[in-house]
Amino acid sequence: MLPWTTTDDRPCLLITDGEGGPVSDLADGIEEMQLDIGEELLRHARAMHADPKVPDREFRFLSRRLAEALSDALRVARN
Fold first, then answer.
1. Is residue 66 part of a domain?
2. Domain assignment of residue 73, yes or no
3. Exposure string (b/e) for 27-51, b if CB count within 10 Å is 16 or more?
4. Structural domain boundaries, residue 38
């Protein structure tokens, strides 16, 4: 399974002979980047929780980004 979906949100599958290839390498790189983004968002969230002056709109924005990152991480974990 690739780390992205079709336009109608169905999984994209890559059929290989077990050997790595350019599309497989691209998918692996994107998965790594998605996990790195999730870790960065988590660090940011922890810092925001420590600051009582953070506006609610920033928490809502962060919440949306964390939900996206969690979706990406779950897609990676299921493969």
1. yes
2. yes
3. beeebeebbeebeebeeeeeeeeee
4. 22-77
Q: What is the pLDDT along the chain (79 residues), one digit of tens a residue?
A: 777 788 998 888 787 777 778 888 888 888 889 889 999 999 999 999 899 899 999 999 999 999 999 988 887 777 6
DSSP per-residue codes, 30-76? HHHHHHHHHHHHHHHHHHHHT-TT--HHHHHHHHHHHHHHHHHHHHH
Cβ neighbours, 10 Å, residue 3:
20
Q: Is residue 71 part of a domain?
A: yes
Helix (H, G, I), strand (E, B) or coil at 11: strand
What is the number of structural domains in the chain? 1
Counted residue by residue, the chain has a size of: 79
